[in-house]
Design a protein that fits this description.
13-stranded mixed β-sheet, single chain, ten-stranded mixed β-sheet, 12 helices, about 475 residues, alpha/beta
Length: about 475
């Protein structure tokens, strides 16, 4: 077997791969619905300091006071019944450092998803979250010896408060939106990473977020701080089984890149079609720092995700590269936010969406360059591909540039798969589905190359699977 084939086999995000669940005996279950008693239950189980409990309770009041977002075209949000959701489920064992110590049903879940194999082959560290808590968390010795911290958020709060508390909730305030407030009230799990000055982590760190339970809400909270001149790549994968009832995933991710630091954050989500995926992701880039979000959104009933970068320091750089595929009954509402807050900052947004069947994709972007700055640059590209006449796409780019010392460019295109092209490929012996897949993969190929090898080949295979049912 070649090295490329070995790497490709290391991760499998086939649509059907995540569609299974186990009956698990949970030691800790906060029940359904959200009240102060729910928060007390979570804080008691975790043994949290008083300031964390108060932070959660203030966030609950903010969540209750904020209306549901209304500026999105989809009315699907009204179908979320917050009183029926289970906000905290945990096996109560804590995060194991060895796969042998992970409870059997959780270990079997992650083995079926290929996580231990990935860790052995090419990762510097792995955290595997099962419902509300990490079941496994480990970082390679060589990385730990460099002073890199990679633990779940609960451990970060308890063991590294001097670093964690300084930035926690500072990049994304509790009141940023209704769902960031919800996460702040009931957050559990997620990753905490700190990379010391000058340390360049050679191999990716990965987290895997698995929803197993029905009518469940997963609210991980991730905080990544990369100190001066340091570099890290972080990858996350997400799956959930198919249930008839709705599942909620509402994460908050905060990134901090200090002077000259580089963060690359890669997401491949393959949620089942009953998941509401409503997340807030934002990075703060100091002088000459770089933050790149590389994002692939496949699956879910509704995704609302707009990774952002605040370029706070001179010559800071922000980039969002995103692929979204919306199939029947799905709405991918994705985009980017680029806030220029210093001279000579630059941002790049490249978004490609595919709408299949009656799927709907929406690009929603914001670029802000204020008048007092000088020498800022932005490039925004939004390309949409429609597979048939019933699919939909919308583009809402909001680019605000004040002053005359900046360079900006915007390009958007909407195209439909050409019947002549499909006919031509069929004459060369391809089936209609194969021809469709080739067209779609050609459309996103330049972006797929931005993903690591072990993801990019599987993304193409996943697109092939999505296209199989789209013809006829």
């Amino acid at each position: 077997m070649s090295d490329q084939t070995e790497t490709t086999a290391a991760i499998d995000i086939d649509r059907s791969t995540g569609d299974f669940h186990y009956d698990v005996e949970y030691e800790h279950d906060a029940g359904r619905g959200l009240t102060e008693a729910t928060i007390d239950y979570i804080s008691d189980v975790k043994g949290e300091d008083d300031w964390v409990r108060e932070f959660r309770k203030r966030a609950l009041k903010t969540f209750e006071s904020k209306p549901m977002p209304t500026h999105w075209a989809s009315g699907d949000l009204e179908n979320i019944d917050f009183d029926q959701i289970r906000y905290y489920l945990s096996g109560g064992k804590g995060a194991a450092r060895s796969w042998d110590d992970v409870p059997d049903e959780m270990k079997e879940t992650f083995e079926r998803l290929g996580i231990p194999e990935q860790e052995r082959k090419y990762l510097a560290g792995v955290e595997a979250q099962f419902d509300s808590e990490a079941a496994y968390s480990n970082v390679k010795d060589a990385v730990a010896e460099q002073g890199v911290i990679f633990v779940n958020s609960s451990e970060g709060l308890a063991e590294h408060p001097e670093i964690f508390r300084k930035w926690f909730g500072k990049v994304i305030p509790t009141g940023d939106n209704k769902f960031s407030a919800l996460n702040s009230a009931v957050f559990s799990g997620g990753s905490f990473i700190y990379v010391p000055p000058g340390v360049k982590v050679k191999h990716p760190l990965q987290a895997y977020f698995r929803i197993n339970a029905e009518q469940f809400g997963q609210f991980e909270r991730t905080l990544i701080i990369v100190d001066e001149g340091a570099e890290v790549t972080y990858m996350e994968g997400c799956t959930a089984p198919k249930f008839e009832t709705s599942t909620l995933h509402s994460a908050v991710v905060e990134l901090v890149a200090m002077k000259g630091a580089k963060i690359q954050y890669i997401t491949v989500q393959n949620w089942s079609a009953n998941v509401f995926n409503l997340v807030t992701k934002r990075g703060l880039a100091h002088e000459d720092a770089e933050i790149r979000w590389i994002d692939c959104n496949i699956g879910s009933r509704l995704t609302m995700k707009y990774p952002g970068v605040i370029m706070k320091g001179r010559k800071a750089r922000g980039e969002v590269i995103s692929i979204a595929l919306a199939n029947d009954g799905q709405h991918q509402d994705t985009g980017a936010k680029m806030i220029h807050a210093a001279d000579e900052t630059s941002s790049n947004v490249v978004s490609k969406s595919i709408s299949v069947g009656e799927g709907r994709s929406t690009y929603r972007g914001q670029v802000h360059i204020p008048k007092h700055l000088k020498g800022c640059k932005n490039n925004t590209e939004c390309d949409a591909l429609l597979i048939n006449a019933r699919s939909q796409t919308d583009t809402y780019p909001a680019i605000t540039v004040r002053g005359n010392q900046h360079a900006t460019q915007h390009e958007a295109s909407v195209s439909q798969v050409s019947e002549e092209q499909i006919f031509y490929m069929q004459q060369r012996g391809l089936s209609e589905a194969e021809a469709m897949s080739l067209s779609v993969n050609g459309f996103v190929n330049d972006l797929v190359r931005e993903f690591p090898m072990e993801y990019s080949v599987e993304l193409k295979r996943l697109i092939d699977l999505e296209m199989e049912g789209s013809v006829g």
